Amino acid sequence: MRYYLIAGEASGDLHGSNLIKGLKAEDPQAELRCWGGDLMQEGGATLVRHYREGAVMGLTDVLSKAGKLLSNLSFCKKDILAWKPDVVILIDYPGFNMKIAKFCHSHSIRVFYYIAPKTWASRSGRNRKLKALVDRLFIVFPFEVPYFKSKGIDFRYCGNPLIDAVEQHRFKPVDGLDGGYIAVLAGSRKGEISRMMPVCMEMADRLGRKVIIAGAPSRRQDDYQPYIGERGNVSVVFGRTYDILRYADAAVINSGTASLEAALIGTPQVVCWSTSKLTYFVGRYILRVLDHIKYISLGNLCIDKLAFRELIQDEFNSDELCREVTRLCEDEACRAQMQQDYRLIRESLGGSGASRAVAREMIAAVKELRR
Predict the structure, then answer these.
(1) Which pTM was predicted?
(2) How many CB atoms lie within 10 A of CB 322?
């Protein structure tokens, strides 16, 4: 069968690459075409466009890149029609992918959505579109099960693919380092980096610890260097995120997939996040309305408990960050409790083999829909 996959960020590229491996294992004759990144291409799919061409964050970025985004959308639609896939598989990235779902539905092309839009946190109106436009929804978090069930949306839950990604990785110390440093994962978007790096550099100065920044796949040294300056205790390493996390004494992480990866790897962490005052105000209002959303981190949401601290907005400052990082490095009771909570997070996500299980479900669903 012919599978057309669309991912728009680094995390989607990771999940997409593992799904591609699962599809090839379950369907040896599979033909795969994708919008994604290096990992999906290495997995065996023909790469049409790299996700870095469409990465945006915030209203200003969207407006400045509107022409490029519309061009990408138009080209993607034409490419799908020309290639004639058996199914289009959308991976997260809802701003772009929901438009593709509508297009595919209008042309009677089967649509699966993998890594569901986080409608449980915001934009719940998308649930109506998911129900109307998507043939199958594939979710990856246990707390999403009761939510989507209550919305009457047809979904499948086969566990979380990050477990596979972590288990399959062969860990190796970075440049001979087996500890003694703080890892910083500042996010993959320029806006995230611009908000994370100044505070993290203040931390590096005050603690005097070595800091290794895990460079995002879509970024370059130039994106970090203006913040690093002449500091000799700070370096950027690309392509080694899991290794950096594994051997770090602690990690400072921008909220997202990376915080869940750190939990599965076992790295003591603190999640940090800030945004513009307007965006924060709107977000706080949304979270007050959605009173079931207590945390911003996926790991904490999985067990409905604060397994690790979240420094949000004004609380994300060098004083609080230095105190928390010191605690993570020196307080053995804190570290032990966090490891217990990490085990709960892992158990909540199910066992290994999620990517291949999803692939089997997708292949079966295509055959069912054909009938």
Answers:
(1) 0.85
(2) 18
